[in-house]
């Protein structure tokens, strides 16, 4: 553990940031799972609404630099493609 006052404060801040980042990453994983579950279930309407939520959550996580912006774009693209395939099929 740090001894300097500023280092102690920085450690405290890093713990808060870690908790916040973990919560956001968990939310990202859960919204992706929700879209995939709706696709597996064959519910196109639920998949579309879950996709809108997932897009918003992924974009916000990328904006806050919790995940890389290209990773967010890749996930959004793949989920959108999957939803669109089920719409046409």
Quick tags:
ribosomal protein, Small ribosomal subunit protein bS20, mainly alpha, structural constituent of ribosome, 89 residues
Task: Describe the structure in brief.
Helices cover 87% and strands 0% of the residues.
- The rough form would be described as elongated
**What structural category arises from helix and sheet content?**
mainly alpha
How large a portion of the residues is in β-strands, by DSSP E?
A: under 5%
Distance between the termini: 58 Å
Task: Report the order of strands and helices.
Answer: HHH
pLDDT averaged over residues: 96
- Beta-strand segment tally: 0
Tally of contiguous helical segments = 3
How large is the radius of gyration?
18 Å
- Tell me roughly what share of residues is in helical segments: over 70%
Largest sheet: none
Ranges with pLDDT <50 over ≥5 residues?
Answer: none
Keywords: Ribonucleoprotein, Ribosomal protein, RNA-binding, rRNA-binding
Function: Binds directly to 16S ribosomal RNA.
InterPro entries: Ribosomal_bS20, Ribosomal_bS20_sf
Pfam families: Ribosomal_S20p (PF01649)
Write structural notes for this entry.
It is a single chain. With 89 residues, the chain is an all-alpha fold. The protein has a domain at 27-88. Helices cover 87% and strands 0% of the residues. The chain contains three helices and no strands. Helix 1 (5-41) runs antiparallel to helix 2 (44-63). The chain is elongated, with a radius of gyration of 18 Å. It starts with a helix and ends with a helix. This is Small ribosomal subunit protein bS20.
């Amino acid at each position: 553990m740090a001894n300097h006052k500023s280092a102690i404060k920085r450690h405290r801040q890093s713990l808060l940031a870690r908790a916040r980042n973990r919560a956001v990453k968990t939310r990202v994983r859960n919204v992706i799972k929700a879209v995939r579950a709706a696709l597996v279930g064959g519910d196109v309407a639920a998949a579309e609404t879950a996709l809108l939520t997932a897009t918003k959550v992924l974009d916000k996580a990328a904006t806050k630099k919790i995940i890389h912006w290209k990773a967010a774009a890749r996930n959004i693209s793949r989920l959108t493609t999957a939803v669109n395939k089920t719409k046409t099929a």
